[in-house]
Amino acid sequence: MLSRRRLLHLSGGLALATATPAFAQDAVTEDWSGDVEILRQAWQALHSGLYRYSTPEQMTGRLDGLSTAWKAPAAFRARFLALTRVTAAVRCGHTYPSPYNGEAALRDRLYPGRELVPFRYVWIDGRMVVTRDDSAEGLFPRGTAVTAINGIPTRDLLARLIPLARADGHNDAKRISLMAVRGDDTYETADIHLPLVLPGLVDRAAFTLADGRVVRGTLLTLAERQAGAPSAVQPTGAANPWTLARGADGIARLTMPGWALYNSTFDWETWLGGVMDDLTGDGARGLIVDLRGNEGGEDCGNVILTRLVASDLALPMNRRFTRYRRAPEALWPYLDTWDRSFLDWGEAALGPDDRGLYRLTRYDDGDAPTLIRPAGRRFAGPVVVLCDASNSSATFAFAQTVKDSGLATLIGTPTGGNRRGINGGAFFFLRLPASRIEVDLPLIATMPDGPQPDAGIVPDRYVPTTAADIVAGTDPQMAAATADILAA
Fold it and tell me: Which residue, of 22, 28, 315, 374, has the fewest CB within 10 Å?
């Protein structure tokens, strides 16, 4: 399942001719309601997960409201905020207006100046807890808890931000995770949305700290954010984005910040298979697979599984569905993608059923489940997988498999994604002509055979990070995993 933030550069043959939008002034007076009708038609015709969590009447009401908002004169960012509320209401982790797949002019309007908080942070108990100070004044030591910005409590800010985050179902852990700034995204979700819900965040801001002090700090530009923090791992060429460390304790620690290897020539299957085979040959005491911060990408975890199973393992039967067999030709001018075959599934789309969905067989193994078969050297030692709310696509599926099978122990916090299934696998980049905004449109819905909870995967051992851990620079999940293996 493709990771949403790695779709940039994949788009190709159907791209619209680019043009510079007339964004001379922040106020927008043009009627963009025609874009809403294109969005409505595209969603109704193509979005297989549109009605997972909403009724058709609810979606119609939201789109009608957006159409009204996009007719009235308003600031560009007010219109963008209105759109984001609607896309987030689909409750799909892959449906949103993407800075990765949108035009440079869109990114310029989203980041007009000095508006980004001068630190990286995570959310703990409604507070922004600093993980790195990027302020020129050194105002925010690691572990500092920020409780208000310009007098607005951070709890209130988080409550405003959560409804804008893309996530599957009612899994708010993923939404809160997205509204942190860790330095692992080229365009941090929180950096886009915090200025939208906190007008006046310009040049400098007043930050209230947990001890009651109020400090004024200079805000960052996007260029400063990106210069101060490496962007998310986007491998190109043959570079290996993963690291393997073998400690004196005999434990191998495999760190995998991303599985999105679409633009990479790195022979990851051979390398990963060799790593897993060597664990047995080297007599490793155990293996820790660190997937924290990894949204997904390729099904890299399957190679790991082939070295853990003693016999064939059937993966969960998540059937694939699409809302169309052939995309309406009237929409083609607005649909960009990297694979033109997505326009017409042909005989691979069976149906429709009583939900209006087509069973998609293009990627299926028929009615039989996908099997993980033993390969290479089996590693029989203890294995721990570190997980968190970012795991929402291929990493979500891997976490579900290892927990359900008992092949490894999950340690960390609940994953993103959703046990009821997610949308992804193939995408159109819907380019709205008047606004020049792009909206990612996932085309394939995976659905389990039976009822499932509206939630992510709960780890075997819940180990959160506290403010005290951040101050001390300790890693509680890694420590817990190490202790588990040493005690085995």
Answer: 22
